[in-house]
Amino acid sequence: MPLKKMFQWALLIGGAGACVALLRALHVPGAVLLGPMLVAIGFALSGVGLELKAGIFLPVQAVLGCMVASVVSWDLLQLIADHWAVVLAVNVLSVVAAGAVAVVFTRSGWLPGQSAIWGLSPGAASTMMMLGEQRGADPRVIALMQHLRIVCVTLTAIAVAGLAGAGSGSDASASPPVTVFLSGAVSVDVAATLAGLIAAGVAVAIAAKWGQAAFWVPVIVGSGLHAAGLAAVQVPAVVAAAAFAFGGCYAGLRFNRQVLLDCLHLMPAMVLGILLMIGSCIALMWPILRSFEGIDVLTAFLAIMPGGIDAAVAVAHGMHACVPVILAVQVMRLIVVTLLAPQMARLVSRYCKPRQPG
């Protein structure tokens, strides 16, 4: 690696660490995710050319899968079983709402071609970019919309956490928060289980050429082992923090200055579409609040936010949020988006034609 590139990486890492320290000093929720993301966006837009290949992100996805598995228990499975109809309904409705917004933007010609259909999906970003490009949509627009969505949703979640966190303690008392981090010494058994799950997830993802396997293998295998009491799945705090920080850098470096300049005239429409999608998810908070007794607004928002489990857990940690409820809804979202969103996008793109100018 050239000396100049090494110096740039060192600056990025140092800047990310400094930003995390500053945000934590200001008591900003999710600082370990937000700090590296903001610094990485700055580096990406400066044109220095730093990038992280998608394959490098696989271990991070595996760690996030282990975090989910670490809180899976019979109580969580019972929670999902008791509220499966509401959890399934709100997630299906979020995908339908994203499709409805995309139809309006496509037919109005506010975004080119069918980019809105693929760019506004509340998840499965890599799948949406691949399928959209196959259907003739501009992958640069889709990628920019997906990355903007992640940033906007993360910032919104942090704002909600800042506003609601101070007053959520009494509401959350009925459902005490569950940490996904292991503090203190790490036993050999815990370290071996964690390493094995991460290695298995990465290996299956590479062999199957399906990146999401890196997340799902630890979730499925680890959850089974953890719930059955066969192995303790726990994630050390330093590993969790590193995963969040790396995920923030990965998302931030995905921005491209040239693409941003080329799509600058589309930014108002992109941001409006993302805000409408976030607004529709906020409306879907109320069924969750009514269904799950004793939870607060912050928990309901983090559960339905269209930004992924990693951002939701990062913001929830240290706040008065009920992690099992968040995971119950977010895990179902992953399933629904993975299965339904591509089919919804194909259906809409087949019958929805953009308005021709003139």
TrEMBL record:
Transmembrane regions listed in the UniProt entry: 6-23, 30-50, 56-77, 84-105, 144-166, 178-206, 213-246, 266-286, 298-319, 325-345
Pfam family, one: AbrB
Listed InterPro entries: AbrB_dup, AbrB_fam
Alphabetized UniProt keyword annotations: Membrane, Transmembrane, Transmembrane helix
PANTHER family found in the cross-reference section: REGULATOR ABRB-RELATED
NCBIfam families referenced in this protein's UniProt entry, alphabetically: Gneg_AbrB_dup (TIGR03082)
Protein name as catalogued: AbrB family transcriptional regulator
Lineage, highest ranks first: Bacteria, Pseudomonadati, Pseudomonadota, Betaproteobacteria, Burkholderiales
